[in-house]
Amino acid sequence: MKVAVAGCCHGALDKLYETLELLQRRHGVRPDLLLCCGDFQAVRNEADLRCMAVPAKYRHMQSFYRYYSGEKKAPVLTVFIGGNHEASNHLQELPYGGWVAPNIYYLGYAGVVRFRGVRIGGISGIFKSHDYRKGHFECPPYNQQTIRSAYHVRNIEVFKLKQLKRPMDIFMSHDWPRSIYHYGNKKQLLKMKSFFRQEVESNTLGSPAASELLQHLKPSYWFSAHLHVKFAAFMQHQTNSKEELPKATKFLALDKCLPHRDFLQIIDVEHDPTAGDSLEYDAEWIAVLKATNSLINVTQSLWNMPENNGLHAKWDYSVTEEAIKEVLEELNHNLKIPCNFTLTAACYDPSKPQKNMEPVHTINPQTTEFCAQFGLTDINDRIQQVKEEGSVREYEEEEEEEEMDSTGSAEEPSEYNTDNSGLSSINPDEIMLDDEGGDEDLSTCSVDPSPDHPPEFSASFSDIRIMPDSMAVSSDDAMDSNNEELEKSGVCKQAEEKSLNERPLKRIGGNENGNTGIKKIKRRNQAIYAAEDEDKTE
């Protein structure tokens, strides 16, 4: 079957789907499946925009809300992972995955599904060592820290994926596996992106967690995005025994979704011709979720996964064939994922903008149903329980202080540190450009939903390539042929942004406080996103 793979979508769904339709009209190629490697931006309304970790000038509604409301429907089954520029409050509703719109499926923090017999896995977010060992504790309303930490990869998701034993066909991550650049045309990569050199030479570019998964899963294909450059590599894996057949992974990083950019790839993947056209659960993955359910943590405490070091009674959570069989029996051997998409938030109405809409912590019925079916912990429900219990404990402590004639006034209970003086207003992971140059033309980094300004797809279609049978590295396959000029690095000023108020969790609520700041950012991140203002639609 034909699989289309896209890099950072940045909410430009109309452009993406219209490009696929143009591909079919011109070349008779119709993909059976579309995979997106993060920065999907499933933004439903103004509250979702405020939960995206990007400067205010990049918070555009784009076109996803039309698919969420049902006004439009994705013409091809779309499966995506999260990146580091997402409506985190929306994706957080579906920690185990689920439908964000009809025919558009999110894989969750980590997930594995099947389509026509092809096994597809993925992990959302990017790696940051300071949050890696924490639990998933974040929830809206976010503060300056949690709006970013919400999309950071956690060790429990990597641990779950490492329990898998069965072969993986396709795997997706947003950031690259560390060291993968040594298996492709590194010289050409550094020629195009010279600011990668220091990190490449020190072997610090990319995610060590993703590299660990690459070594364990050994998928046939691995797709990534994040760095906004096309790069191909071929990695031959070492075998653990003489009996084990050699395995290799074809790696491909995709460029961002913009006109004149090589952001889309088509590959042919062997599939089961007898399988149906429905997206299906993966029985082994479900069994692993059940086996690791007791490890779920929703606190900020740093913790290590079980390992064979004499400190844990159990460290192997891989599942037996009997456990997989039990999952199949629970489902009556019907692995089809139910089409149970449900609206959980008001949809954006261009005629009635609501700039002051507040994000709320929502329990999604899809997650409730999934957890009830397989006996799993609803992470968002657990977060609410922990917060409510914490509020009760603090209230009781305050009552005791009052009984002791305490003269101090009680503070509003909060899980978060309310002192913002130590919080940076600029994050190296954010899109951050030099604001001194005046107003930028953002027409090339987004798709205006207005029908009065349709994108010129004919100009950009020549950049779509059909993946050859072999991903042998060459200057053409390893990199996008388009030349990019890098902006000079320097001090970037961040426009004044509104940050979400910190206060005890409620199902509905939240305020805003203003906050400003100036700080230097990493040259690599600045240069990556500088292209947002360089590309012009002709």
UniProtKB/TrEMBL annotation:
Keywords assigned: Hydrolase, Iron, Manganese, Metal-binding, mRNA processing, Nucleus, Zinc
This protein's record includes keyword Iron: yes
Cofactors that this protein relies on: Zn(2+); Mn(2+); Fe(2+)
Origin superkingdom: Eukaryota
UniProt key word Transport: no
InterPro entries in the record: Calcineurin-like_PHP, DBR1_C, Dbr1_N, Metallo-depent_PP-like
GO cellular component: nucleus
Ranges of compositional bias, category Acidic residues: 395-405, 431-442
Listed Polar residues bias regions: 415-427
Cleavable signal peptide: none
GO annotation, biological process: mRNA splicing, via spliceosome
GO MF entry, a single one: RNA lariat debranching enzyme activity
Residue span of region Disordered: 388-519
Matching Gene3D superfamilies: 3.60.21.10
Segments of skewed composition (Basic and acidic residues): 485-505
All residue ranges annotated as the Lariat debranching enzyme C-terminal domain in the record: 235-380
Cell compartment(s), UniProt: Nucleus
Pfam families recorded: DBR1 (PF05011), Metallophos (PF00149)
Family: Belongs to the lariat debranching enzyme family.
Name of the protein this chain belongs to: Debranching RNA lariats 1
Species annotation: Anser cygnoides
Organismal lineage: Eukaryota, Metazoa, Chordata, Craniata, Vertebrata
Encoding gene, per UniProt annotation: DBR1
